[in-house]
Amino acid sequence: MIGRGEGARGGAAAASTAIARRAASLLAALLFGAAVSTSALGLGCARARDGGAPPSSAEDAGAPVDVAVMAYLSEARALHHQANVHEADGELSAAIAPLERLVGAARPHPNEPVPEVDEVLADTHARLADLRLRAGDVDGAAREVRAGMAHAPGPTYFRGHLLEVGGIVEEARAASLADAGRGDEAARARAGAIDLLRQAVDVQEKVIEASLDGGAPAPGEREGGAR
Prior knowledge:
Layout: H1 4-49, H2 57-60, H3 67-88, H4 92-103, H5 115-134, H6 138-149, H7 157-179, H8 183-212
Helix pairs in contact: 1-3, 1-5, 1-7, 3-4, 3-5, 4-5, 5-6, 5-7, 6-7, 7-8
């Protein structure tokens, strides 16, 4: 018979694995879509510099997408693919390493907002949080969630996803504390998990509502809030 703590850990692990698969697929689509769209945006910037059409509202939202941004997105794709290979082999520590390299890498236009870069970093920190959680590093996972939030302060998909992952991290913390007989701390962690998951739902509902009103871009498009 499965005990309460073991059942909670199993549920958290299953949810974590599902999120990892979904996040990897979404991030791959995000990076691919961004790389494709940047060519057109780059051409638009060149035309504007040459006296053609004025900058679009997307360009006004941050630094123009140029060769440096495209190179960064290509680097991000390569590092995430490295992580995919190691993760498929069950080598979580090896999968973490290229993602740590990405979040520590030089960024184009460091003194200007670049939504594409912030979106990639927000999702990379979310993936790092999941990997660290699966490796048993609950505190490290929570740190990754907090780091990712800095790249997604507005009500965007990326912030909602980080809140979702944060809730799962606290759910796992609660199960671990309960197993250790630390009931009061486990109760606080459960309350924190519920609050983070409630916030995730609230943010994603706002994203959906704004999308229905024609006001929210889909993941992979430039988002003024994710800076």
